[in-house]
Amino acid sequence: MTIALIRALDSVTKSLLDKIPNTIATSDGRYLATQINKKIRKFIPEVNKSRWADLDLWSEEPATWSSSNSSLKLNEKERKKQDIIYELYLTEKHHCQVLVILQQVYQEGLRINGIIDEAKRNELIPPVLDALLDFHLNFLRQLKRKRLETEIVDSVAEIIYSEFEKGERNQTAVYAYTEFCSKYDQCGRLYDEWMIKNAELRKFFDQYEQDSTYKGRTFKMCLLLIAQRLTKYPVLVEKIAEVESGSAKEESMRAHQAVKKFAMHVNNEITKIEVNKRWDRIRSQIDHSSKGRFGPNDFFTYDDLILNGSDEERRIICIEVIIVLFDDILIMLTNSSNNKYVFLDRGSGSTVIALNKLLVREVPRSTKLFFLLSDDPCPDLFVVSFASKTDVDQWKKAIEMSKNMAPKH
């Protein structure tokens, strides 16, 4: 009787339990654990790391030097100089902010949240931000130290020259900028594509791009500001040189040449990459059976693009040169291993060119000129890249003027 009653109660209890929903079922438990784990791993950007804590990157500063030093009695020229030096300092600080945001907010956020894998992260954000930060934090640190020494800064030319011409971080920064700027367009395209296809990535970027903490530094804005930064230094340093005089002016002009050379070095490296990419596209479409005449009795084939005796391909070479224009000739020089200028070796191509045999043609929508040498029986053609469109226009005009004035031989 007792056993029967217990069994009856068990069956009633079981039927009741079957009708009562579990508070946490297996699937619910997994979901809850996932949510708790996500909250524990919530991403918080580390924008105040010790690496740059001494620079007070996020502190507010006056817009101009004059606005916070109006009581100092200075002539207009000196006040203008202080404003430009301060502008260099302040824009360098803003540039460091951009680098930190791109690295600590966007790059680290994508990594910690596991939104895309490492290979895709490196496609979207070139992995060179550490090198760029190293270069620019050091430069900013020196500018800040100089400003703290005195209210009126005598010169920053030596700081600029030492960092951009011969600093220990110089070559690494050139490589980093080359890598970053050469992939700028690709990064922008991938961002646009993935924002459409990947909802989680879109949600991540929307969250941080709309966060007022980061002062409107959207992902694409960060890319643009970093890619443009090297174009700003020559303008600012030239402005400083314009208000200097005597030996100080000479130092500023030397600093100006250093920042121009740095930017041109990066530009030349990017040009090499672009030229080789174009050549790869052309080479892939060359008919291997076609032949080209090479001299009166010789032919050149696709296989001849391989250097004799090796598997190495011929390379398209970009060389940094010094061009000197005389009233009847143009010469091309380059740096030798002992830092002396030597005549550029172009193999059988001329590097001393009679102006009456030189034709100059502009390459549309670029900072390049075609140099065509009508030197019978060996005509020649090569491309010269310049730092800016202004330089292209000046050189084209100067060559044409010299040709018109050249002695008739």
From TrEMBL:
Subcellular location as annotated: Cytoplasm
Keyword presence, Transcription: no
Biological processes, Gene Ontology terms: regulation of Rho protein signal transduction
SMART domains: RhoGEF
N-terminal signal peptide: none
GO-annotated cellular components: cytoplasm
DH domain: residues covered: 80-269
Keywords: Cytoplasm, Metal-binding, Phosphoprotein, Zinc, Zinc-finger
Any Pfam family the entry gives: RhoGEF
Domain of life: Eukaryota
Keyword Nucleus in annotation: no
GO molecular function, one term: guanyl-nucleotide exchange factor activity
Coiled coil: none
Protein name: DH domain-containing protein
Source species taxonomy: Eukaryota, Metazoa, Ecdysozoa, Nematoda, Chromadorea
